[in-house]
Design brief:
The chain has helices at about 5-15, 20-50, 65-70, 80, 85-100, 105-115, 115-125. By secondary structure, it is mainly alpha-helical. The protein has one domain.
Length: about 140
C-alpha cells in the first residue's frame, strides 16, 4: 500500500463515525425541543385555566388563538387576521401586549412574550399573575 492510499482509508474510516455522533446530537436536540414544546403547551394550559377558559383549548390549533383573543378582549374574527401572512405579525404583537395587560403585566413583559415566548408563556401560566379581565375590551 502506498503512503497516499493509507491516508485515504484513514480519512474514510474517520468520517464513518461522524454519522453516529450526528444522530446522537440530533436525538438530544429533538428531546430538548420536545421538552420546550411540552412546557409551552402546559404554560398555555395554565394561562387559559387562570382566565376561566378550558385548558384543553391550548392543544387545538386555531381554536387556541380564538381563546387568546377572547382572553385579551379582542374580537374572535381576529383569528382570520392571524392567518394572513405578514399581517399576522402586527396583530400577534398587539394580541400579546393585550394578553400581558390582561394578566396585570407591563410592556416589558409583553416584549419578553414577543421575543421569548417559550420562556414568558410558562412564566405567565405558572407564575403568580392573576387574570384581571380583558384589557382591550
Amino acid at each position: 500500500m502506498m503512503k497516499g492510499e493509507h491516508w485515504m482509508f484513514t480519512t474514510l474510516a474517520q468520517q464513518g463515525g461522524g454519522g453516529a455522533a450526528g444522530a446522537i446530537g440530533m436525538g438530544i436536540f429533538l428531546l430538548i425541543y420536545l421538552a420546550i414544546i411540552i412546557i409551552v403547551i402546559a404554560g398555555f394550559w395554565k394561562m387559559f385555566t387562570k382566565a376561566g377558559q378550558p385548558g384543553w383549548a391550548a392543544i387545538i390549533p386555531i381554536y387556541n388563538s380564538y381563546i387568546m383573543c377572547k382572553i385579551a378582549g379582542r374580537p374572535g374574527w381576529w383569528v382570520i387576521l392571524l392567518l394572513i401572512p405578514y399581517l399576522n405579525f402586527i396583530f400577534w404583537i398587539i394580541l400579546l401586549v393585550d394578553l400581558a395587560k390582561s394578566f396585570g403585566k407591563g410592556i416589558g413583559f409583553a416584549v419578553g412574550m414577543i421575543l421569548l415566548s417559550f420562556i414568558f408563556i410558562p412564566i405567565l401560566g405558572f407564575g403568580d399573575a392573576e387574570y384581571q379581565g380583558p384589557s382591550a375590551g
